[in-house]
């Protein structure tokens, strides 16, 4: 299996787009952490379909994908709701290292980014996020307010 993963990793770095998509999927399924920098670059620079696959792969790698958090936070602002969902899942699965960036994203100009951030913070469950979520409970967007309230309730329930 190691040989297959190494071959997929080589394809990820230099393969054509179709082969690269298969490699991204395989590396994600096996949580191949050495691919994280390349997957993060794909999230930032590739075509929309490959960005989505790379975000899914990072999500499966989980907390070992911590170094991808800055790229994921940039991509959270891309105007593609499916990509945003995959990125949000990746940030949730990476967990606590995502919290500072998600707190900042809670005050983004884009309401979809604020919504995704509030949802992610609630699922990660860091009590450090409660004060900024309380501020987000006064957001101009009703969905942001709802997600922020739900996040606070979820965090408080998990802490107690």
From TrEMBL:
A Gene Ontology molecular function term of the record: oxidoreductase activity
SMART domains (alphabetical): EZ_HEAT
Pfam families noted in UniProt: HEAT_2
Domain of life: Bacteria
Gene3D superfamilies: Leucine-rich Repeat Variant
PANTHER family noted in UniProt: DEOXYHYPUSINE HYDROXYLASE, PBS LYASE HEAT-LIKE PROTEIN
Role, per record: Catalyzes the hydroxylation of the N(6)-(4-aminobutyl)-L-lysine intermediate produced by deoxyhypusine synthase/DHPS on a critical lysine of the eukaryotic translation initiation factor 5A/eIF-5A. This is the second step of the post-translational modification of that lysine into an unusual amino acid residue named hypusine. Hypusination is unique to mature eIF-5A factor and is essential for its function.
Protein name: HEAT repeat domain-containing protein
Biological source species: Phototrophicus methaneseepsis
Top-level taxonomy: Bacteria, Bacillati, Chloroflexota, Candidatus Thermofontia, Phototrophicales
């Amino acid at each position: 299996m190691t040989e297959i993963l190494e071959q997929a990793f080589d394809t990820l770095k230099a393969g054509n787009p179709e082969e690269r998509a298969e490699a991204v999927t395989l590396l994600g399924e096996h949580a191949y952490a050495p691919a994280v920098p390349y997957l993060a670059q794909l999230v930032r620079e590739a075509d929309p379909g490959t960005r989505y696959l790379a975000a899914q792969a990072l999500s499966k790698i989980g907390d070992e994908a911590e170094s991808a958090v800055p790229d994921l936070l940039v991509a959270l602002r891309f105007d593609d709701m499916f990509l945003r969902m995959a990125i949000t899942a990746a940030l949730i699965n990476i967990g606590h290292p995502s919290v500072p960036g998600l707190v900042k994203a809670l005050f983004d100009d884009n309401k979809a980014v604020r919504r995704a951030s509030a949802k992610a913070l609630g699922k990660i469950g860091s009590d450090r996020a409660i004060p900024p979520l309380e501020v987000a409970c006064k957001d101009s967007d009703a969905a942001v307010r709802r997600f922020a309230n739900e996040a606070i309730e979820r965090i408080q329930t998990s802490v107690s």
